[in-house]
Amino acid sequence: METRVHGKRILINAPLYGAGGVETHLLNLCRLLAERGAEITLAARIANPETPVVKLRREIPVRLLTTPFASNRRLLRYSTAWALAMWPLELRPGTFDLLYTVELSRFPRFLRRCLRRDGYMIGNRIGEPLVGSQRLDPSCEPILDGFVVESELQAAPVRRASNGLHVTAIPLMAFVDDVPPRQARGVDCLRVAFLGRFDRAKGIYRLLDMWPKFAGRSMRLDFYGHGAERDGLKEEIHRRGLEASVRVNGGWSTGQELAAIMAATDLVVLPSETEGLPLVLLEAMAHGVPFVASNVGAVASLAEGNPDVRVVPLDNSALAQAITEMESAIRAGMVDGRRLQDYHHTRYGYERVADLWSRALLEPDQFWSRNGHKE
Fold this sequence. Notes:
Number of domains: 2
Largest sheet: 7 strands, parallel
Strand order of the largest sheet: 3-2-1-4-5-6-7
Structural class: alpha/beta
CATH superfamily of the largest domain: Glycogen Phosphorylase B
Number of strands: 13
Helix content: 25-40%
Order of helices and strands: EHEHEHEHEEHEEHEHEHEHEEHHHH
Distance between the termini: 37 Å
CATH class of the largest domain: Alpha Beta
CATH architecture of the largest domain: 3-Layer(aba) Sandwich
Shape: globular
């Protein structure tokens, strides 16, 4: 695809917790925008030094604006006070063409002063759809010019809850560019993997609860990622005596590192309690790796017309049964990695997603309609 040069000045506001789906999206989005001529400033009151976009910012390039307290998320109050006092010296009023924020709170209102008079402010909700009487933050919604969610399932409740806000569905930017065709191989020891943030809500301990059902078989479970529960996960594996078949590994910062993990994986399992449209499941499909996942958020949409994945209720018995079914299908050669890659390419291919993000943030006059939310 031909690179288009826009010369836009983009301000991105986001917390950077480490290696995770949102942070992967931000890394790939920043790289895309920079390749297309944008000048990017990333403002983060929380910035874990191990976050890929932090580590690779000079290569993209991205200007990173943080605070002396940003590496400790427990000091957010102090980080916010510093940002309110000091960032105006770095972020002059009327400087940026567009503000893109994945943080939906009062803070983006403070950053909005950095926009040009005709600039755009675009919000992005990542995660579970709004439910019941939930609404967007009332301090943020009125000043948004557009809003992005990950799927149409998440878009509908935002449209109902907002006052005419222009809402569109665009999947997050994954490590899925230039992925080679999946090569079929024989399976001796089935390699099962969890990829993501080590957090209780991601179901890491639920997965350990299930694993004794499989530990006596020719199967191995690998955890890949980062997170606050890393030490707790290791301790629990040791306490349960699962070291022979379960291993905790580091995460990944690049598409090449993810490709190596996926090449060594036969089945991804994501037993989360809360999700939107998980980036790691899009990446698994792009690499031709089947998955078993809990039916939360918009995950079920990934199983529509897709025989190579299983999405089941958030229940240990249902998840374990789905893993067993997928094990049998994989060993029997019934799972087609290239068919799975075709499924991904048709619905979530890199070129399509990259074009949508490029137009949404670099060509906002054509992409978004003014809707009376500007102040």
